[in-house]
Please model this.
Amino acid sequence: MNAAGKLSVFGLALGLVFGGGWAIGHIAGPLDASAESEPAEHAELTEPTELTEPAELAEAAEVAEPAGVDAAPPGLAAVQNGYALVPETGQLDAGTAGEYRFRITDGAGSAVTRFEIEHDKLLHLIVVRRDGAHFRHVHPELAADGTWSVPLTPPAAGVYRVFADFLPEGGPKTILAADLQVPGDFRPVSEQAGEHRTATVADYQVRLDGNLTAGTSSTVHAVVTRNGLPVTDLQPYLDAYGHLVALRGGDLAYLHVHPEGEPGDGHTPAGPRVTFAIEVPTPGRYRLYLDFQHGDRVHTAEFVVDARPGASAPPTPAGGEPSEPSEPSEPSEPSEPSEPSEQGVPGQGEHGHGG
Ligand SMILES: [Cu+2]
Model:
């Protein structure tokens, strides 16, 4: 394996070593060390699961050390891991049904056509205005020539960020992002004064408990109630009771987390509480978006959480293990409800009205 290909593997291994990998949502991705690598080199990459050989991990951590914790997190670049996000659509009109089209290309500029299914889909596309408003999570269709397309109706003017979240066949987990322009009268949502822990969407109130500590796996719980009653029959949405996307304030670095436990595993309850282990790279503000399904509809609850510096001792409610579900130390009072957003019926394009 040549140097470029090897660095990619090291990047992958780094994720496994320092963050437990994608499963717990480590946001620090590999350096873009293999941007010029040839497609053939992707084929050389071993499966991530094969990287758990202790010797390989040790070697990888050692060699890749200079990249370390300062490696750019995912979601900031259109080119990473040797793959590029190439939008065919650069602009859409607000309030008008349109279509977003793009390709994922490899180091040789050829469209990638083979992807692994993750959470029931070949690719997950997150579209959110850069001020954090109007979050959408949609699933484009892949044409034989490698062109992806999805119906999209931007609800309002502004610059949107589009994140493509995918696992190319023979390549590493990759998140690429590009901007989408929506011309018109842009009215950004005002900056939140503080944290925003309670969201109201349709009949649901969702509370987010637990604290985020930078550089540490932190446990947060989403608690879903409907008209004041706990919801205990959440439906699996894309193989999970919830999907949590975190975007870092200021630059929209991207983190996608799945809950602890799976539907049907015999011990994970279908609500009201969904538990996530999440590791944010730096202190400061994050916007969190929780997708959950109930009553055959997918809803998105939005939160604003300030992550604490990692240097101070992580707050462990009641002295418990940080990773263990426990009662929150700071139950937040319902404050201003966030603007509701609905993503409509799953599998039907998922265009809710405004977020
Ligand atoms: Cu998805």
